[in-house]
Amino acid sequence: MIEPGSHQPLGATWDGVGVNFALFSETAEAVEICLFDARGNETTRVALPEKTGAVWHGYLPDCQPGQLYGYRVSGPYDPSAGLRFNARKLLLDPYARELSGSLRWSPAVFGFDVTQPDNLSPRSFSDSAPYVPKAVVQGAVGRPGPRAKIPWAETIIYETHVRGYTMLHPAVAAADRGSFRGMRNREILNYLKALGITTVELMPVHAFADEQFLHRRGLRNYWGYNPLGFFAPEPRYLSGGGITDFLDMTNAIHEAGLEVILDVVYNHTGEGNHLGPTVGFRGIDNATYYRLMPGDPSQYANDSGCGNTLNVDHPQVRRLILDSLRYWINKMGVDGFRFDLAPILGRSATGFDQQHAFFSELKKDPAIANVKLIAEPWDVGPGGYQLGNFPPEWAEWNDRYRDTVRQVWRGDDYKLAEFANLFLGSADIFEHTGRRPWASINCVASHDGYTTADLVCYEHRHNEANGEDNRDGHQHNYSCNYGVEGATEDAAINAIRRRQRLNLLTTVLLSHGTPMLLAGDEFGNSQCGNNNAYAQDNEAGWLDWSGLADDPDFHAQVQRLIRLRRNVPLLRQAEYLHGRKRTPSGWRDIEWLGADGERLTDGKWREVRSLTAVLCDTRKTKFQAKEVQAVAVLLNVADAPMKSQLPQFENIGNWYNVFTDDGEQPRRVDDQAIRLAGRSCACFVFAHTSPGWVI
Fold first, then answer.
1. Which of 3, 115, 347, 632 has the highest CB neighbour number within 10 Å of its CB?
2. What percentage of the chain carries pLDDT values higher than 90?
3. Which of 625, 624, 599 is nearest to 611 (CA)?
4. Is 259 a catalytic residue?
């Protein structure tokens, strides 16, 4: 019945006649392939007959796409030696392209006898097959269409969640809500295009598990940072079309002129710590896939904070990750990746290494070399904070930018000097590796923490619904409620909150670097003070689209800011500005001015409460009508109004007001003494003629 087959490629591969199965395991003694019918009943079990190197393989000539399958792997069960084989546990193929079903919590999914958790030696002989998802053999799928190919310098990222973005959207049909199909809804794509963003970043879409502790609380893992595999999409996001649903979504997003980035979790798996279930990697080759503790291989290194850590030092683990990346690029049309807890990808026994083999192998891969790579540059292990230390082709989430901008607008003392460098792309963090300003991913809010609306409404986290006694989530949010915790009918408080939301987003969109917006921030979406909504797969975590109608002017102002950034290249320059280049009239490429219009000296920075950043085009001596010669970004972080003096240029042209929080249209400035309201910002451009085209 079964033939020898081939050791390449790994996974289940249909050739038009039958299916080749290939599984890597260095220390297994035998591997069986198990086939299941549509109701989950095991119909066939047969040993893979061949082993080439560390790959077990076999070919079933009559197997067809749609077949459900899993593996049973035999070998020593000795947790004290890092060996956890147990043939009674059905295991997921690490290369499975699609899963059917979900993990159901039962004592049977554990490799040890759960009645003796303090002694892992007694092996569990319960069959786990009824309780674990099955892999699905894939046939031919379509092809990715043409890509948008947005240059880094023009990129504006929009972080969102497939399920949360579509569950309450009025234009999405009920059957499509919470799915990839809902995400390609024409009205959603038209909205994203009209907003002006270029790149949609989706929170994890790889198949994931709901943790047992959440199941006990009646909650679900909403965010998805608990993967079961790295090729299969999460089944709950599919709505009848199988994995084609994902490809159709990426093709539709590309047709709208946008990119797709995936938030990927190659740092741990959903099998958890030494007391976790055995559903895949643990039972296939525990010591290969996971970093075990030196001196006690029954325990797992926990640099992820999620119970285990992938062992990227091992060549097979690196191959798995690189194969996964290539699959999502070549077969599913993905344009880039944001790597969760990315230092783990460069960790070895001695710590993080920018020259780690993973980074070297990734750089040499031609498919991966042409996509966007973004690091979350910290994990919870020793030396886990690595902001600025990733290879030159990577961008990084910049938490120094996030926290400083929050503090600046909250009114904290002595922050504007630090802000000035961050505003220009954080050269002190990224330039030493030869990177450009785009390497800094600038945001004030992301999925992890408060929304921008909650930053100005709450000073304390309100995570009680997570069931952890409000102990989870960030404690230091640099937020302010302006007098009342949470929602209020006080018009004055609501006015300052609205202004501060706009100040925060204006700063992000006018800073050098790559701006990132959290979905819903453009219309004030709130999570009611929950700054860790990972388990809130409900209206607390989903986007409330009714907010769009509550204040349409705010949404319009965000659109104007995005257009301003797109149409004025001085706001998104490819080089760092250090004040070394000058215009023919002597103005430097960046000038920092105080309220009096004079250049700020070192002694003045500490006391300043308002400033003007003037960016001058030093490349030209003559300008066309539709060109901007200089940009002035004014910030007043004080409570009281202030006057700021715009510089007097000798060039031919005038200053024009192109953005203020009052929503006025561009107008020429005749008096260069500009009055700024308390806690407000504005943008002016110097041009020959009225620059209505910039917004």
1. 347
2. 88
3. 599
4. no
